[in-house]
Amino acid sequence: MIVKIPFQIIELESQSYHIVVDGKIASLELTFIIDTGASRTIIDKCYADKLEKIPFGAESPMATGLSAEQIPVELYNISLLMLNDVSFKDAQALTADLNPINEVYSDIAGKRIGGLIGCDFLLKNIKTIDFKGKCLKVLKK
């Protein structure tokens, strides 16, 4: 069965758009950016205490933003991630400081961003991104 998850398109400035969807982790209501250009899903580090940390090996992982700045990250398991009313179990995410993103969003859109849903999650869980219908389509069994 195909389930639809509605999303909004926010215009940050002329011809600059983001897809956002409402969701929850650990009963916290959050707004997520659907970021097809992000390799990994990232949750704001201020929510890390609500998640289960997954230890990395001896390596110290780093993420790289558009400015090529190295950002320290940690890996966590989200036992239950909700995008609107659709649930996803055991999603993995990195945590990072999303304050720079939130400064932009709070000024322009009046929203605080809890995380970025990256390609790792999208490839595993999302069948289609329907821009005209403004929804993500998920195949649920």
Task: Describe the protein's architecture and organization.
- This protein is mainly beta.
- The protein has a single domain, classed as Acid Proteases (Cathepsin D, subunit A, domain 1, Beta Barrel), CATH 2.40.70.10.
- It contains two helices and 13 strands, in the order ββββββββββαβαββ.
- It has helices at 99-108, 119-125; strands at 2-6, 8-13, 16-25, 28-34, 42-44, 52-54, 62-64, 70-72, 74-83, 86-96, 113-117, 128-130, 135-139.
- It has a six-stranded mixed barrel. A three-stranded antiparallel sheet has the order 1-13-12, with no helix packed on it. It has a two-stranded antiparallel ribbon with strand order 7-8.
- A hairpin with a 2-residue loop joins β3 (16-25) and β4 (28-34).
- 25% of the residues are buried.
